[in-house]
Amino acid sequence: MTIAQAGPPRQAFRLSQLLYDTRYRSLTIQVIALFLLAALIAYLIRNLVVNLHDLGKDFDFGFLNRRAGYDIAQTLIPYTNNDTHLRAAMVGIVNTLLVAGLGIVTATIVGILAGVLRLSKNWLVGRLMTVYVETFRNVPLLLWIILVYAVLSESTPAPAAFRGDEPEASKLFGLVAFTNRGTYFPSLVWGEGAGTLAIMLLLSILAALLWQGYARRRQAATGQPLPSLWVMVAILVLPVTVAFVLLGAPVSVEVPTVRPTGIARFQGGINVLNSLVALWVALTLYTGAFIAEIVRAGILAVSKGQTEAAFALGLRPGRTTRLVILPQALRVIVPPLISQYLNLIKNSSLAVAVGYPDVKATLGGVTMNQTGRELESILLLALFYLVVSLVISLVLNIYNRRISLKER
Amino acid sequence: MASPGPRRAATLDDVRSRGTLNCGVNPGLTGFAAPDASGRWEGFDVDLCRAVAATIFGDPEKVTFTPLSGETRFTALAAGEVDMLARNSTWTFSRDTDLKLDFVAVNYYDGQGFLVPKALGVASAKDLDGATVCIQTGTTTELNLADFFRVNNITYEPVPIQNDAEGRQQYLAGACDTYTTDASGLAAARSTFETPDDHIILPEIISKEPLGPAVRHGDNQWADLVRWTFYALVAAEELGITQANVEEMAAAAGDNPEINRLLGTEDELGPMMGADISPQWAVNVIKAVGNYGEVFDRHLGPNTPLGIERGLNAQWTQGGLMYAPPFR
């Protein structure tokens, strides 16, 4: 206020100043904008209330506790049709998170590989990656999902073909059966002594990691490399194998087989639905193409001098990429990568096209349709996707802060 | 502030001022609602929409058809996107009360069945233990299926599909052992197969599926209009009025007072449904689509690829359940 007193003599505040005085004008505009926004929101809410009332509907989440009554093809948590709609929604949420998690991991791997290879000096490899990126980036994801699903279900035999002494179809390595219902993998059966074996395995992994650390430190200190890989493999394999034999094979493999009578159906093993595979593969390849471009941009953002300096120090191209270029490129890559992960999670709601039971298909599909609670279901769905996206965003932003350039 | 969105009270006025009836139908179920080769909607449910348009406008062509999936149909009706549904929708307690719909009549008594390839070697639905089942999602059949398998203590794996076309494709590709939906829908699906004789519909009918036209709660005048348009078709069959003879019978009052009342030669029932409804409304309706039996025979009956017998859908005088309340 001391400054104001030093200025020209203070005049009484006039209303016109709100519009013509630059000190107040921006405030005026903001207040008006805020008022208009509030009015719009109030109008929409009132509209909703009036229309719901006209329809005779109330706003109530009680339907979540009612019996669902429908079955879900893939349940990772226990569920029967006697459970509630809430439970069905949880099953859907787990299924969404499964396909999103799988997709994020594989899309990242595919994306980094394709992005690096696209810059390859090998003409053929570089062009192939260009073709991959441009094909997948420029065709809608929905088409890819349906295409993969169609290929999976049209080109594979029915379970009945695996039946009999001389079946028409045979399992891959006698273990994995590809059918038009899904892929059946062998599963592990845990017998007596399996716990000991698991502890052995954990100890072996720990020992192998310790050895790797020791080998690295020694190389850094003395310059002499130790045979790290072979020793690690030996540490991992030998004790566990000996223990496996001594304990009398506590873990056995159960190979899926077609039951001999009744409708042909695989028993034992793990069934991976074709709809899950289709969604997973399509999400991976589609998002992978975008990630490849982000990775390429990140690598190109690292100045050529860095590569030349690394080469001058005698680093081979592979190590140059791994130790010099990628760490610097990550700073450019991570922020747009977050968007791609969020896109992938939201795109997984296209599952409905191939009947994969994700949360959009349970809560936003069957439950919504059977209970007629459109507004409540959609709000819950939106909330779910919002929370998941915000959590992913938060985690990756923390990671980004860790790898970003520390300016001191 | 005025609220946008549908006006609940006077659907008839809205339809009149719009000049066309918005009717929600199945996106493609042979015999019930499907566009023909020239893109014109044809089918059993489609004719009911045309009949309602004939009641209102005297012109059966003033209909806009909106194809709706099993999942979107009730939302579309509740939101006012369509004025009525004639879309193989089962009349159930919760749909009538909780979903705030009014089912005005039953135009087809159906039940859920199973379609299987003969090669599967199954003669009864109870032998379907372990089957993979294609099922349209968002339907009552989904719930019936779960109930049936639980009660019979057998298991199945559901393959959710969006519509009949996808169901047929998945079933023929062998992605499921059996396809379940209303028996009429199964007959329709089978009629489109290259070799229909390689597939059978299992004898068990596991549910009651009274299919009927639905309107929104709260507009009784509109519900009455749709209801009595349908019953006019049923009554016309019972009274022997056909597309061919309706003009002649409507020319002058005859011996049967109920026919006279229906055709507007003796009493004026039309205006009781709405001020602008013609006294000859039923004549327009029957001229447009024929009576209930004619509509059934044209789209579903033994002389069509579907080949469905009247069964429960015969007149009450013929051992069926079709029974129009008196027109007076």
From TrEMBL, chain A:
Membrane topology per record: Multi-pass membrane protein
Domain of life: Bacteria
CDD domains noted in UniProt: TM_PBP2
GO biological process, one term: amino acid transport
Subcellular localization, as worded in the UniProt entry: Cell inner membrane; Cell membrane
Main localization of the protein described in the UniProt heading: membrane
InterPro entries: AA_ABC_transptr_permease_3TM, ArtM/GltK/GlnP/TcyL/YhdX-like, MetI-like, MetI-like_sf
Gene3D superfamilies named in the record: MetI-like
Keywords associated with the record: Amino-acid transport, Cell membrane, Membrane, Transmembrane, Transmembrane helix, Transport
Example GO molecular function: transmembrane transporter activity
Domain ABC transmembrane type-1: 93-396
Transmembrane segments: 24-45, 88-117, 129-152, 194-214, 226-249, 277-302, 378-399
Family under the similarity heading: Belongs to the binding-protein-dependent transport system permease family. HisMQ subfamily.
Protein name (database record): ABC glutamate/glutamine/aspartate/asparagine transporter, inner membrane subunit BztB
From TrEMBL, chain B:
Gene3D superfamilies: Periplasmic binding protein-like II (3.40.190.10)
Stored SMART domains: PBPb
Pfam families cross-referenced by the UniProt entry: SBP_bac_3
GO biological process: amino acid transport
Keywords: Signal, Transport
Family: Belongs to the bacterial solute-binding protein 3 family.
This protein's name: Glutamate Aspartate periplasmic binding protein GltI
